[in-house]
Amino acid sequence: DIQMTQSPSSVSASIGDRVTITCRASQGISSWLAWYQQKPGKAPKLLIYNAVTLQRGVPSRFSGAGSGTDFTLTISSLQPEDFATYYCQQAHTFPITFGQGTRLEIK
Amino acid sequence: QVQLVQSGAEVKKPGTSVRVSCKTSGYSFTDYSIHWVRQAPGQGLEWMGGVNPSGGGTYIAQRFQGRVTMTRDTSTSSVYVELSSLRSEDTAVYFCARVLTSSRLDAWGQGSLVIVSS
Hints:
The structure holds two protein chains of two kinds. Chain A is an all-beta fold. In chain A, 0% of the residues lie in helices and 50% in strands. Chain A has no helices and eleven strands. Chain B is mainly β. Chain B has strands at residues 3-6, 10-12, 18-25, 33-39, 46-51, 58-60, 68-73, 78-83, 92-100, 104-108, 112-116.
């Protein structure tokens, strides 16, 4: 199975800050990576797929980068509604696997 | 609009089985696979497998093989997951999700809580 490792596990930031979350795959996955946002008690929400493509309706302050084994999710200017947990997911090989999550908290 | 509506919460005893349903609407049911993902309390997301509504073919994660069955009913545009030999570690919220190209999960059900307790 492909292991997905996110860092950091949690991060504290303020409104307006720029935040970057990293995801590393245990083997190359080309650009087969998606990012999700999850708020407490809710289902995950797709933000980015194919590593860099913004899902329709997602604000442009979210962006993705990377290929191969190293990927990033960047939020350019944090808004109050962005405080949540973020997961990466590899879509290269079954079984699909997720990172362990990064909790984004208000400083 | 695309909707996935799941069945309600269940409380089950260890050793028994549970079936969770996922009724879809707003798109052509046979065009996209439906996958199942679970989340134990306070934990991350765990992919369980998926079903192709067109032919009924399934792919089940190895750790669930022998214990999980995934089926679909094209007449009601619904997908089902059944988990047998329940143990306390199966306590989780179970989500269904539609899968588009690139294996991205673009629409999710609201989740179904399954509690396994004696």
